[in-house]
Amino acid sequence: MKNFFKLIQQEVSAGRPVSLVSVVAVKGSAPQRVGAKMLVSSSGKLLWGTIGGGTVESLALKQAKIQIDIKTPLLKSFELVESGEEATGMLCGGEMKLFIDIFGISTKVYLFGAGHITQQIIPLLMNLGFSPIIIDDREDYLKENIVTRLNVVTHTGDFVDIIDSLFIEEDSYIIIMTYSHDVDEKILYHLLSQKLLNLSTVKYLGMIGSMRKVKEIFSRLESKGISREILNSIHSPIGVPIKSQTPEEIAISIAAELISVRNKEDK
């Protein structure tokens, strides 16, 4: 059992989600008892354990992969008979109820800029179930203690080149807060003008800045062809209004805004 927990930790720490399939109820004759488990990779491969083999295990492996893909646990019954709506084609004659749980699924937050606020928000995001990805053209900032200690994913180099190399997934959150408003504007314009984002599926796009600065940037972007409708969908100024001043306070206000967006979407 120790190896089982170690394997989950190993896979999740490496950024690979896994599914734990557990037998939670049995009726009649079945190939395994309540409590049997197996661990499944994101590709649907058996990593550890068994729930009895045969057709039911094969179906459960496929179902586990589906649940990882859609990031949702599932409670499902399998009839161990040859025919019927939930039939497996098996001859045992009983029924197994499986709970398919998911580990290592976390929503990605792309943080452009590795400055003081980012350093403060990293542990907040990780504790809240987000997976931060830090992007900066200053390699030394990506070697700060908090980044290396928490083993955060980082990308260094020209911002535009990195953006072009990234595949920004649906349901992602994007925060732009570099060392320069000009760089922030450049990043935002590239993301929007190159249509690298599907704003209908990206959960959050935010940029730091005062009301005055944001107004100036949006005016310039509109003159370059970015529609007012798109600009109005951007969270900027960023964070909930708690009169934050310090990097720690600003980080909390931004994290609170992400929570608000996430919880609203979950309803």
Structural write-up:
- By secondary structure, this protein is an alpha/beta fold.
- The protein has 2 domains: about 15-105; about 105-265, 3-Layer(aba) Sandwich (Rossmann fold), CATH 3.40.50.720.
- It has helices at about 1-15, 55-70, 115-125, 145-150, 160-165, 180-195, 210-225, 230, 245-265; strands spanning about 20-25, 35-40, 45-50, 75-80, 95-105, 105-110, 130-135, 155, 175, 205.
- The strands form 2 sheets. The protein has a 5-stranded antiparallel beta sheet, sandwiched between helices. Strands 8-7-6-9-10 form a 5-stranded parallel beta sheet, sandwiched between helices.
- Helix 3 (about 115-125) packs parallel to helix 9 (about 245-265).
- The radius of gyration is 23 Å and the shape is elongated.
- It starts with a helix and ends with a helix.
Short description:
The protein is α/β, with parallel strands linked by helices and 267 residues long. Helices cover 39% and strands 22% of the residues. Helix 3 packs parallel to helix 9 (247-266).
> So how many helices?
9
Mean pLDDT across every amino acid position: 85
H/E element sequence: HEEEHEEEHEHEHEHEHHH
By DSSP, the count of extended strands is: 10
In terms of per-residue confidence, which ranges show pLDDT below 50 for 5 or more consecutive residues? none
Q: What is the correct CATH architecture of the largest domain?
A: 3-Layer(aba) Sandwich
The CA-CA distance between the termini, in Å, is 37 Å
- Number of separate structural domains: 2
Shape: elongated
CATH superfamily of the largest domain: NAD(P)-binding Rossmann-like Domain
Q: Kindly identify the CATH topology of the largest domain.
A: Rossmann fold
CATH class of the largest domain: Alpha Beta
Helix fraction bin: 25-40%
How is the biggest beta sheet arranged? 5 strands, antiparallel
Radius of gyration: 23 Å
Multimeric organization: single chain
Largest beta sheet: strand ordering: 3-2-1-5-4
